[in-house]
Design brief:
Blueprint lengths: L1 H10 L1 H10 L4 H27 L13 H30 L8 H11 L1 H6 L8 H27 L3 H34 L6
Helix pairs in contact: 1-2, 2-7, 3-4, 3-5, 4-5, 4-8, 5-7, 7-8
């Protein structure tokens, strides 16, 4: 049921949101059956892509990471995804008070999770980390994730489309701030020795 909603959110989002809303899933259940499997895609694909294929600019030699440096980076990447989904879900829960529609926190985390499904699945393209390929598929995934957010908020939070639009815009702003925070934390981690080591 959980992963079937992953397919349904891509093909028939309106019906999928209704079904997701009507199921009262525990946060632990949501993590075990949906979030963790989806969150593993990008770190595993990125590990394989950066160590086996590498990336290149122009006609230069592909640049690869050593497995010893790529493994901890991939692990931190995975943990960051798990934390980010939870934090965004909690922030949705917190912001819902402003709109007078506070819903259970597990529903807010489900909203954050299923809205990000296209971004999770776009992680498969990290198997072959060519910039233009990731850019080509990443932008439509991002656009569809935004669409899912805007279509899902009115259903999940049970508010009008107009109020849902405002709420969705606030959530999107929070997500952008979270992204900046993740980038900043990457710089900090690199300074503490978690930076990449390249294959000679």
């Amino acid at each position: 049921m959980f992963l079937s909603n992953v397919w349904r959110i891509l093909t028939e989002p309106r019906n999928a949101w209704v079904q997701i809303r009507d199921n009262d899933w525990a946060i632990s259940e949501l993590y075990a059956r949906v979030i963790i499997p989806l969150a593993l895609i990008s770190p595993i694909a990125g590990f394989i892509g950066t160590t086996q294929f590498g990336w290149q600019i122009g006609a230069g030699t592909p640049v690869k990471l050593t497995a010893a440096s790529a493994l901890p980076i991939s692990f931190v990447y995975f943990v960051a995804i798990l934390i980010s989904v939870y934090v965004i879900g909690v922030l949705i829960y917190w912001m819902s008070e402003t709109y007078g529609v506070q819903r259970p926190v597990n529903r807010c985390i489900a909203l954050a999770t299923y809205s990000a499904v296209p971004l999770f699945l776009a992680g498969f393209f990290q198997f072959y980390p060519v910039l233009w390929i990731n850019f080509l598929f990443g932008l439509p995934a991002l656009a569809y994730a935004v669409y899912l957010m805007y279509s899902g908020v009115p259903v999940m939070m049970e508010i009008s489309i107009e109020r849902g639009f405002m709420f969705s815009s606030a959530i999107l702003a929070v997500c952008l701030v979270a992204l900046v925070g993740l980038l900043a934390s990457t710089v900090v981690l690199w300074s503490y020795g978690l930076g990449p080591a390249f294959v000679n």
